[in-house]
Amino acid sequence: MKTPAEGARRGVHIGGLGMAANVVREALHTIANREVAVRIITRALHHAQEQQIPAGGRRLRIFVDRHLRTATAFVLDEDSAEQLLAQLQPLLARIPSIEPVERSRAAKELDDHVGVAGIASLDDETSGIILSRPTEAAPVDRTVLIASKTEALMEQLGAAVSGAPLLLIDDIVTLLDRVKESFDPPIVIVDCSAPTVQPTTLATMGEDLPAGAEVVLWGPDPIDEETARSLVESPDRWYSCEPDLQSLIALLGKLLHV
């Protein structure tokens, strides 16, 4: 018999592990529960004759506009299908048309050996964000990324914890953009009562978070927390706290050493 956590894990990876798959699942979870989302994605993949959600480009557009829309309308209704597309179109437009090529371990080790000096700025044409590395690393405060639909939360935390930049995150794509901009490992807070990024989605994107990044689940559902922790390589860097604001402020203060 499956445990509650094993049952909750069903569907976490449905459709693949790439950024596009995570964005699609995240959007589906705003209009349907996990089981219904699995049905929609499975039906869309079947009719598209795809093994997983395409990573980008024309295939992704066709999959979303035609097959995912049709499957959503069939399982739910036309209004839900239109709502899903309205959410997805601006997010998917920011995903590169071609998946980035996985770099070899030797190339990564060479980067570590050479260091950051002399590395040129990179222009991410899909988001308009310019990424650069300084010739000398300057000490900066850790960025706190807040995945919450409650804008007041950032103001409340800012008033209680000074010295670190706080940014409100709207979705998983924005989160990854901000992670790229952070030179120090960020702290990601997921407001589990009103999240803009689901804990399990963040867990499946673990390779995109830098070493040393820490995640705080504020007021998580126990099953969702267990599922997310089971998907990450360093669960010791995932923290949880009670849903009251003072508990969150206290934990954040410890992580920031303030």
How many individual helices?
11
Strand order of the largest sheet: 4-3-5-6-7
- What characteristic shape results from the CA principal axes? elongated
The portion of residues forming beta strands comes to 5-15%
Kindly state the number of beta strands.
Answer: 7
The proportion of residues forming helix, as a percent range, comes to: 40-55%
Tell me the distance between the termini.
46 Å
- Taking Cα atoms only, what radius of gyration do you get, to the nearest Å? 19 Å
Q: What is the mean pLDDT?
A: 78
Uncertain segments are 4-10, 98-104, 110-140
Order of helices and strands: HHHHHHEEEHEHEHEHEH
> Given the helix and strand composition, which structural class is it?
alpha/beta
Biggest sheet layout: 5 strands, parallel
Word description of this protein:
30% of the residues are buried. α2 packs antiparallel against α5. About 17% of the residues have low confidence. Helices cover 47% and strands 11% of the residues. Strands 4-3-5-6-7 form a five-stranded parallel sheet, sandwiched between helices. It has a two-stranded antiparallel sheet with strand order 1-2. It is of the alpha/beta class.
Offer a concise description of the structure.
With 258 residues, this protein is an alpha/beta fold. The protein has eleven helices and seven strands.
Task: Name a few traits of the molecule.
alpha/beta, two-stranded antiparallel ribbon, 258 residues, 47% helix
